[in-house]
Amino acid sequence: CFCFSVLCFLVCCFLLTGRILRTIKRRARDNQLQKNKQLLLKLTVSLHQPLHQVKEGWIVQPLDHFNQQNSNTFPQRFFVNEAYWQHHDGPVFLYIGGEGPLVEYDVLTGHHSDMAEEHGALLLALEHRFYGDSINPDGLKTENLGQVQCESSVSGEL
């Protein structure tokens, strides 16, 4: 009976911790988006037009980088911010999106944007495969979900 009580307590703690971490992650993302929107509004009011410096683009990626017999592809979205790029042979910073869609704000604010400004770098943000708009037409079918693996994601980003 004591072991069962301890086990129940541990399971409840585990479930509660996961819920708390998801809530923290969601709130942090919401706070960052709110901060980004406020900065964008401030820049727009001061006649800086930061969104005009952001370009959206698409590249065609192989669905499977490891199977040469599979010729299926998917469109992968990216954003470029050239506002801080001082030299064409200067640094390029790559921001790889996480488990969600990318938006223009992702190349306008945040630590990576601050670093790009400090180093005169081109800032490129790549949307993670199978998230946002970077999904192949049949991407969410069960047989395609194997292509979400880390190895395929990293190969597509290099």
Write the topology of this structure.
Blueprint: H1 2-45, E1 54-62, E2 73-81, E3 92-96, H2 111-119, E4 122-126, H3 150-157
Parallel strand pairs: 3-4
Antiparallel strand pairs: 1-2, 2-4
GO cellular component, one term: endosome
Keywords: Glycoprotein, Hydrolase, Protease, Signal
GO molecular function: dipeptidyl-peptidase activity; serine-type exopeptidase activity
Distance between the termini: 54 Å
* Tally of distinct domains: 2
Main-sheet strand order equals: 1-2-4-3
Look at the structure and give the mean pLDDT: 75
Shape annotation: flat
Structural notes for this entry:
Keywords: Glycoprotein, Hydrolase, Protease, Signal. This protein is of the alpha+beta class and 158 residues long. The protein has 2 domains: 1-47; 50-157, no CATH class. It is 39% helix and 18% strand. The chain has helices spanning 2-45, 111-119, 150-157, and strands at residues 54-62, 73-81, 92-96, 122-126. A 4-stranded mixed beta sheet has the order 1-2-4-3. The longest helix has 44 residues, at 2-45. The termini are far apart. The mean pLDDT is 75.
